[in-house]
Amino acid sequence: MDASQYKDYILSILFVKYISDKYKNQKDSPITIPKGGSFDDMIALKGKPEIGDGMNKIIAKLAEENVLKGIIDEADFDDPDKLGTGKEKIDKISNLISIFQHENLNFSKNRADGDDLLGDAYEYLMRNFATQSGKSKAQFYTPSEVSQIIAKIIGASNIKKKSGTVYDPTAGSGSLLLKVANETPNGITIYGQENDVATKAMAMMNMWIHNNVDADIRQGNTIADPLFKENSTLKTFDLVVSNPPFSSKAWSNGIDRTDDKFTRFDGFGIPPKKNGDFAFLLHVIKSIKSTGKGAIILPHGVLFRGNEEAEIRKNIINCKYIKGIIGLPPNLFYGTSIAASIIVLDKENTENRKGIFMIDARKGFVKDGNKNRLQAKDIHKIVDSFTNQLEIPKFSRLIPLSEIADEKNNYNLNIPRYIDSQEKEDIQDIEGHLKGGIPISDINDLEKYWKVYPTVRKLLFVPLRNGYVQLKVDKLEIKSIIFEGDEFKRHSETVKKAFESWKVRNLSLLEKMQVGSKPKEIIRIISQDLLEKFSKLELIEKYDVYQKLMTYWEETMQDDVYLISQNGWNVSLYSTKDKKDKVTGWNSELIRKNIVTELYLAKQKEALYKLQDELDNISQQMQSMDEDNQGEDDLFSEVRSDDKISKKDITKRIMEIKDDPEFADELKILSEYQDLAKKEKQLKSNIRSAEEKLDVDLLQKYKSLKESEVRKIVIYDKWLSSIYQSIDEELERISHNLAERIKELSERYETPLPNLINNAKELTEKVNQHLKEMGFKW
Asked: Domain of 74?
């Protein structure tokens, strides 16, 4: 099946499993689990011929009892076209139930004291379904990173009461609404409208799984028939967010564009018939309270397209509703590769608004499969600069309304008009190529390095003539001068001190983690503090350091912290198994074997390394003897089969020729090889014994570790060691870039054009002389 189809089956079972675990036998539950309508009833159907119809009936009972009809019953488990017939269908559905029956999938405690584990899992599924779905089927999901940005920049955290409201007129699967709700300290009342029936069902399941059972999500065409109204006007909300279909050509179906009864276009202009971007933008504006905030994701074209859209844009700007515009990278959204922007709206204090804050974030992303993805550092930088109105060269700037409205720009909001994000061109210097020498302007462009390494500049360059310098050391010495210099060491020490300061400040928080700790709160605190500690350092970028921590969190530390929040400081030993479910060994979920080995069994490990080195040495000797004897005079010819030497045949051959002087050379080689083979066999046996002994001792050590030891190993030898190493690598990368740039400039100008011409002339004369001596004439 296509992902857009099988997601209905997966999510239906996930939902039934979740509410069965969470609300079974619970008093005052918001959900009723009827008899014959639970996950246990699904388990009872496994292997039975009526499993398909039975699944439909279980889901129908649950839906009817809880007003979930049309929400959780989209998938037909008795559809032969999708699931087959007979045993094929029985096995397919039974196996699917078994996956969700796994003992580790117990959702009765899905929230780790505020951390929505199942909600995160649901969002993970949403993202992957969107990735795998076709172009037109992936619009139900807004990338989590974009949703996070919107939730923060519209000030959702300022909504202190549950009575606050948020609305999404193009709700999709509800991910954007939920990110806003998650940002509010005490929750918020959720409203949404979604045109697609199946997607609306996903949104409702998403709301329930995220414990927002009172969310009001309705199905219908928002532009033609908005369902949230107060009398004859649109209902307004504290916050409005939207990721509508880009440039919809069918937006005007069902309405008279020139007579919108909800007056959304009054005072602004009528959107073009074949492009709905401004229709959705004006609907969002109309739905925001007079003191409310909002944000909408639209393609870049809305910022500069002409004709009637230019007039609408001008009128919106003059109303001062636009607080900011954030240009996003291309290929970020599922279903389209075009770049989009976030238009941030704010109806409060418009009379005092003097400009529009623009951010050009188009270059901040990382490749993730066939899509681009914003990293944690990109999100933080965008939010920081917008929230604090920080003007950062080539990235962000407050654009005065007078500049936007002047004759040159004429209300065009295309971001490159106002923010030049282009990097300085690496210009080839003609005089440098003609006369030699590195242009001093190129060296001055490296000023950020010279602030930290001023002496290095003096050690590397000497004046050549006015405006030019030359390298006064060999190119191979550049790196050593940088990395072995006192200034590099001092800067490394400064970075280390910043890290140590961060470590000391956050050690207590890490050491006091226990069952019930909140992982998301922990990473929020320690990452924000890391940003602060590195904010004033030269050369090393604070957001790059922040990303190092966040990458380690995502790859390793996050799993550890969740384990601790569930099981405490327990090494969590488990058996490893092969594909046939046979136990093959053991491991620890919290502490890798190599860490405990290095700390407590280093001598045994070193002895094992020595044995392995001996084995490698002997194996190399045997291989060399084999290679040296291949060919016509192969002394192994009698014991070689299929290009391999048979150790068994060597013994037999030695017995045949040991008393015959004619085969003395062969006997000598075979005997040496046999001795090596015996040593190889013994070493392999010794290594196996040493590995088994090490594994036994290691397991015993794990079992004897005290909680205090586990805490120390995890925090110091695993987390802090890895984080500092990655930061140190970042510093080396920066300095390596300096060395490579200097080398590049040196090689570019080291041979002036006249020298190249003379060299070419000399080589031409030599070639001509050789040709003449060979008798060639031309």
From this structure: 1-109
